[in-house]
Amino acid sequence: MREKFFSCYDEVFDENRNIKNCGREKCIQLIEAAQSLTGTKTGQYGSTITGFMNEKEIIKLYVMLIMD
What we know:
By secondary structure, the chain is mainly α. The protein has one domain (about 1-65). It contains three helices and no strands. The protein is globular and about 30 Å long. The chain starts with a helix and ends with a helix.
């Protein structure tokens, strides 16, 4: 699941942690990957309906995983 999260993260964020013009579906996939990885279903990482992400939480998870 980590690989899926990292793959989705790279599709959504550039190397400077700016969001790419990737579309709502990619954002939803990233949110779902983060939720699956952490077992969270509360919307902590964003909305799987709208694709609106909680960027800070996703980046925090990314940093935590690369430091692990």
